Amino acid sequence: MKRLLPYFFAVTLLSLFAFGAKAAEKGAIRGRVVEEVGALPIPYAVISLFEATAEQPLLTIQTDENGYFKFINLKTGTYKVKVSYVGYTNLFVNEIIITEKDFDKNLGNLKLGNEQSNLNEVVITAPKPLVEFAADVITYNVGSSILAEGSTATDVLKNVPMVQVDIDGNATISGKRSTRVFIDGKPSDYMTSNIADLLNVLPSDAIEKIEVMTNPPSKYSGDGEGILNIVMKKGFKVGFNGNIGVTAGIQGNKNTNANASYRGKNYNLNGSAAYRQNIGIGTSESYRTNFFPDTTFYYNQFNNNRSESDGGNFRLGLDWDITPKQNLRLSTNYNINNSNSISGNDFYYINEALTPTRLRNQHNLGDGNSNNFVFNADYNLQTDTTGGKLTMGITLNTNSNSDLRSYNRTYAFPANLNPSLQQNDNEVSNRGLNFNLDYDKPVFNKRDQLEFGIAYNYRKNDNDLLVQNFNYQTEQFVTNQNLTNKFFYNENILSGYASYNYRKNGWGLKGGLRGEYTDVNFDLSTGTSYHVSPYLSLFPNVSLNHFFKKRYNFGATYSVRINRPREFALNPQVNNADTLNISFGNPDLSPAYTHQMDFSFGAFGQKWSFTPRISYSTSRGVIERYRTVKKNGVSESTFDNVGTNNSFAVMLIGNFRPTNKISANGNFSVIQSKYSSKLNTALNRDGLSLRASLGFSMQLPYKTAFESNLNYANNINAQGRNKGSINSSFGARKSFFKNTLSARISTSDPFGRKNNNSFNQGTNFTSQSYSTNNSSNVTFSLNYRFTKVKMNKVVVPPPPPAKP
C-alpha cells in the first residue's frame, strides 16, 4: 500500500494540472436571489453553475449581502444554474446559452419559495455538490456520491466529513465525545436497543442528505455534543417515479432496495423497501500484563468469529397540503434484523516465569433478532401572510430485541478442571413518545427570525436477563440467581426554548436558550430502586456569522450540552460472556456537561474553498468505560464519571474543483485531549488524536464516473489509545439508456483487511489488543429508474438594454 499511494497521488496531481489549464473567457451569468413572498434579498445563498450535460458543478459561489451573484470568465456554450438555501426549495435554471454576440446573461430576480409551502422544484434532475459547508453544519448530499449507491447508512457515514464509524457501526463526530443520530430532525438513537442495527439496514438510496451539526440550534435537545441528521427522500417530483436497485459482493453480502413516489395536485405518497444480507469474519488477539506487589502474570487471548445477518426496512409516507396554509406529513418506518454468530477463543494463563499454567477453550453461539416500529405525524400551519408558521409533531416508537447466547468452556490443561456450559437469554423492549410544538415567525420586514417551542419526551426500557448454568449430573439448566436480573427504566423530559436570528449587512447573529426538566427512575428485580432527583438544565446557544468581500465567511459559536447516562450505562447487570473480562453498568452515574466553542473561517474561490475550524470544549463528569483488574486477575469494566476533559481541536476542510469534471475534497483534524481526575490519578493523561480523509471524483467520457476515498483515525481515550487505522474505497459508475440504468463497481479496503490496534493502561495492568475484519470486498450494483423525470423549464429574460 505504501508503494502504491505515491503513484496514486502523483497521477491525481498530474490530472489536476492537466485539466486545470484553461484560457480566460469573457462570458458572464448574473442575477439576484430573493424570497418568493416579499421579494426580500437572500444573502449567502449557494449558487452552482453546471455545463449543460455535466453531473458535477463547474463553479460554486454565494450571493452577497444584497442577494446578487455573478459568474465571470465563461467560455461560449450552454449552462444551467442551481440556487439553494436552507429552508427553501431548490431552484434550477436550464438552457442558459452564451455566444460570442450574447455573452452577458442577466437572469433577473430568482425567487425561492418556502420549503414547506412550495414542494415542487423548477427542475429536479440537476445534481448537488457532494459536500456543502456552513458555519455550524456540513451537508453531505448522498445522491451525488458514487460509493453511496446500493449501500446502507453505515457505509455512507464512513465517508462523511468529520464523521467516524467504529467497528460496531456506531458513528461519532470528530472531536465530539457523544453524538446523537436523528432522522428527519427527530431522535432515532433512543428508539432502538441498538442504533447500529437501524443504520446497517437503512438503504442509502432512500437518503437525500446527511447533516453534521457541530453546534445544534436550541430547537434540538441538549443531549449529546453533536447531531448527525439523516434526511430521507420525500419524493416531491411531479407524477409517478422511483427506482429499483440490487447490490452483491464477493463476500456473500447482498442488498436489494426499491422506492417510489407519486405526486398529485396537493399530496405526495412515497414508500421504500430494502432487504440486506451480510457476512462478517474477524480475528483478534489481546495481551494483558497484571502487576501486583508479590507477582506478575499474563493473560493471552486469541479469538475468531463469524456472523451472518439479514434484515429489512420498510417506509411509507404521506405529505398532504390540506389547504394552501396547512400541511400534514405522516410517515412510518419498520425494520427487522436477524443474526446468528459462532466464535471461539483460546485463553492462556502465563506465570511470572512465562510458563503457561492453564489453557481454556471457549465456544460461543449466538442467535438474535430485533424489530423496530416508528410513527411520525407533523402538522404545519401558516398563521399569517408574513411567514409565521406553527408546527406540531408527535413520534411514537416501540421496539424489541431478543438475544440468546451460549458459552461452552473446557480446559486443555490442567486436566482436573471441570467444563462449564452457560446460557444467557436477554429480552429488551423500548417504548417512547416525543411531542413538540414550535412557532417561528419572520419579524422586522422578514429581516429577522423569532422561534420558540415546547417538547415532551418519554422513554421506557425493560431489560430481562435470564442466566442459566448446565448441571452435568442432572443434565438440566439451572437458573443462576446471582446473574439473573430485570431492569426497568423510565425517563421524562419536559423542554422549552426560544431563539432569535438577526441578519443585517452581511452579519448574522443567533441566540437561544433551552431549558430541560429531567425526571428519571429505574428499578431492579432484586428490589433495589433508584430515583434520580429531578433536575433543571439550561442550555444557552449563540452563533455569529459574517460574510464579507463576497468570498469570505467568519463564524463563531458557543453552546452547552449534556450527556445523560441512560439504561445501557446504568444497568448493573453483569455480562460474563468472558469470565475473566466481565462488564456491567454503574447506577450511580451523574450527567456530564460540556461547554463548547467553535470558530470557523471560510474562503471561497471560483474553483476552490477552504474552511478551517478551531474548536475548544471542556467537560465535567465525563462518562467513559473504566477498567480495573482484581487480585484474582478478573478484569472488571464499567462506566464512570472519570473526571474532566479539556479538548482543543484544529480542523482543516477544503475542496478543489479545477474543472467541471474533477473534484477533490479533504479534511484533517488534530485534537488535543487532557483528562484529569482527583479520584484516580491513573486517569490523568493527555495526548493527540489524529483524523484525516481524502476524496477524489472524476467525470469520464461515455457517461462514466470515478470516485475514491481514503480515511485515517488515531484516537486517545481515558485509559489509552485506539491506534491508527486506514481504510479506503474506490468506485466507478456508468450510465445507460438516457441515465435510466446505471451500473457501479466498487471496492473497499483493496490493500488489505481492516486492522485495529488499541492500548489500555490502569493502575495494575497494561493491555494491548489487535483485531482484523473482513472489510476487503468488491461489490457490483445495478440501479434502474423506472420513470422519466419531469422537467419544467425557466424562461431566461433577455439582458437589460445597454445604457446610452
TrEMBL record:
All copies of domain Outer membrane protein beta-barrel, residue ranges: 383-784
Composition-biased stretches (Polar residues): 748-762
Signal peptide: 1-23
InterPro entries assigned to the protein according to its UniProt record, in alphabetical order: Beta-barrel_TonB_sf, CarboxyPept-like_regulatory, OMP_b-brl_3, Plug_dom_sf
Entry keyword annotation includes Signal: yes
GO CC aspect terms: cell outer membrane
Record's keyword terms, sorted: Cell outer membrane, Membrane, Receptor, Signal
Region called Disordered, residue ranges: 748-770
Pfam family for this entry, one: CarboxypepD_reg
Subcellular location: Cell outer membrane
Protein name per the record: TonB-dependent receptor
UniProt organism field: Pedobacter planticolens
